[in-house]
Amino acid sequence: MKEKLCVVPTDGRIAELGGIIGPVSRPTKISYSAIVSMLNRGVPVYEVNPKNVNERVRLNFRNVNSVNFFPKVKKSQPTTVNSYKLPEGRRNTVVEHTGEATEVAKEKAAKKEAKSVNIEVVKKSDF
């Protein structure tokens, strides 16, 4: 059976909890079915964070079955990476494109076209 840690700030009898007289100000484990019954009657029910009793969320039909308190995520500090040391005689600079590679590629393509031979099919009857 699933339960939630809750408080019920209502004065008077709470039939779902065995007819006790409210308010229930000390956090108490209450079953889902009892919580839904109290919500159907319009009784306010608050879920209490087990790690921080002062933190509360009012329950409704949307959040009864969900986890209302998530563990806080620690923000991690960005880590620095030791800088890479270049060997002597080298430098770390950006080289701009000069177009030499495209010129060389065009020259190679032109040489290939010049070397290619046109072959024609010759039939015996042509002799």
Characterization of this structure:
This protein is of the alpha+beta class and 127 residues long. It has a domain at 3-58. Helices cover 20% and strands 24% of the residues. The protein has two helices and four strands, in the order ββαββα. Strands 2-1-3-4 form a four-stranded antiparallel beta sheet.
Spatial strand sequence of the major β-sheet:
2-1-3-4
Distance between the termini: 101 Å
Q: Structural class from helices and strands?
A: alpha+beta
In angstroms, what is the radius of gyration? 40 Å
- What's the β-strand tally? 4
Q: What are the segments in which pLDDT stays under 50 over at least 5 consecutive residues? A: none
| Average predicted confidence as pLDDT | 82
General shape: elongated
Number of helices: 2
Order of SSEs, N→C?
A: EEHEEH
For the largest beta-sheet, the strand count, sense and barrel status come to: 4 strands, antiparallel
Content of β-strand: 15-25%
**Residue share in helices?**
10-25%
